[in-house]
Specification:
single chain, 178 residues, alpha/beta, Rossmann fold, six-stranded mixed beta sheet, 4 helices, 34% strand, globular
Length: 178
Amino acid sequence: MKYKATLMDGEAMSRTLRRISHEIIEKNKGVDDLVLIGIKRRGYPLAETIAKNIQKFEGCEVPVGSVDITLYRDDLSTEYESPRINDSNLGIEVKDKKVILVDDVLYTCRTARAAIDAVISSGRPQGIQLAVLIDRGHKELPIRADYVGKNIPTSKNELVSVNLMDIDGEDSVKIYDI
């Protein structure tokens, strides 16, 4: 991989997550019956950050759960071309709730679809919305994010890397040529 550019630094990410938090509050007319579910691995810490922001803005705690979707690369085996749900225990109740799925990068939408399946199999929510830090295009399914931090048109020969302090030692979004 060849480093191409830094698209967001830590401060830009923080501002973007604050904006997404405000948009979630506004669209849902508050935070009643709202739950956040982060798609592991990087969606979960982003969901926690959004929950902390909502707590600051609204004074209410929003429950945060997670779903473990493992994406098997299609170049390793044709048996696992679609994401597989590794853990369907979300850690929170979703029945009759407004669920916000949170992920770092929206690409083909297959991970989002698998996460939606996991949520629905855990209970019937009022609705499901999707929040992503980066939407890079190249969708293979008719799914769109309700909340987007940044749209970054990419080629399929590029990799968008979201780095988080707790996992990677820095907050940033970088793009690489592969």
